[in-house]
Amino acid sequence: MKTMVERVLLASPRGYCAGVERAVDTVEKLLDLHGPPIYVRKQIVHNIHVVRELEERGAIFVESELEVPAGARVVLSAHGVAPTVYANAKARSLKTVDATCPLVTKVHVEARRYAAEGYTVVLIGHSGHEEVVGTMGEAPEATVLVQSVNDAEELTVPDPDRVAYITQTTLSVDETGEIIAALRRRFPNARAPKRDDICYATSNRQWAVKDLLGEVDLLLVIGSRNSSNSNRLVDVARAGGVASYLIDDETEIDERWIDEVKIVGITSGASAPEKLVDRVCDWFRARGVARIEPFKSVHEDVVFRLPVELRRELALAETQG
Predict the structure, then answer these.
(1) How far apart are alpha carbons 86 and 151 in whole angstroms?
(2) Reduced 3-state DSSP string for 35-86
(3) Which residues partner with 8 through β-bridges?
(4) How far apart are CA 88 and CA 95, in angstroms?
(5) What backbone torsions phi and psi does residue 165 show, to the nearest 5 degrees?
(6) pLDDT tens, position by position, 283-319
């Protein structure tokens, strides 16, 4: 069936970030080294396709480290965990490989430091998100969650001069800026991280969408429902006046979305593999769209080393092999 769509523009950068690449590589390399089962606490990254493929290879995803058999090998997801998780894993003699994104680890370190210095730690983030749960676990007595400008306006703290703020790494840059402005207005002496907590990949993908908005009538964001950074890309497009939908893959495209559309933009969240973009492009090709083009091209060269526990295992396997 032909469509009115004349062009498809691909945002850049899009898709996998360094933290996701590292986390997925960690599980794959452990499966190569040891074979199944490899246990993974929570979804290694928030993408259902990635999780299913790893399950097919023998990864077993569990909600809690307490579900992992004593002495077994377990990978902690990219989103980070509270200190209690490490304690539980140690008590069960689990062989733990920590795939927490280094940028999330940075936020955890900030939370511990600010709390140790006697500050109320204001965490800007979304309640219930795994990253927020893990970060709050670093200093639960000292940390308060703020999700909106209204939360910031109504916040009360023991000492207004001893406030520090940190953020979830996958938030909307614009919305977070508004919340920070409200906090700074109310607590002029608030301490801030030396470097922005919102990760480079989240920021870059949002800026790429903003660049694209003037060119497209519709933006499709490839990512899973529980992917915070993917949802934020939809928010950015809609805030810019462009219709946008979050899809896991091409099977979720509703043809009614493109009835009156001539130019479609496509991007993908930081945990969505590029092959899903290829599948969506093939969906449009099958409907007669020949012009599928990159819109600008921005190269990201950030790479994170594999977790130290895995690097040791790989080195040992090399010497024995």
Answers:
(1) 31
(2) CCCEEEECCCCCCHHHHHHHHHHCEEEECCHHHCCCCCEEEECCCCCCHHHH
(3) 264, 292
(4) 12
(5) -125, 150
(6) 999 999 999 999 987 889 999 999 999 999 999 988 8
Say if CB 282 and CB 250 are below 8 A apart: yes
Helices (H), the chain: 18-34, 48-57, 83-91, 102-116, 130-136, 149-154, 173-186, 200-213, 228-239, 274-285, 308-320
Mind listing the domains of the chain with CATH numbers? 7-16+200-294 (3.40.1010.20), 18-100 (3.40.50.11270), 103-186 (3.40.1010.20)
Which residues are designated catalytic? 131
User: Is residue 247 pLDDT above 80, yes or no?
Assistant: yes
Which pair of structure tokens corresponds to residue 251? 């099977």
**Distance separating alpha carbons of residues 258 and 85, to the nearest angstrom:** 46
Tens-digit pLDDT profile for residues 187-226: 999 999 988 899 999 999 999 999 999 999 999 999 999 9
Are the beta carbons of 47 and 84 closer than 8 angstroms?
Answer: no
Whole-number Å distance between alpha carbons of 75 and 65: 9
**CA of residue 194 relative to chain centroid, distance:** 21
The model's pTM: 0.95
Confidence of residue 244 (pLDDT cuts 50, 70, 90): very high
Type of residue at 32? D
| d(C-alpha 221, C-alpha 238), whole Å | 12
Residue 161: phi, psi to the nearest 5?
A: -90, -5
Q: Are 78 and 134 in contact (CB under 8 A)?
A: no
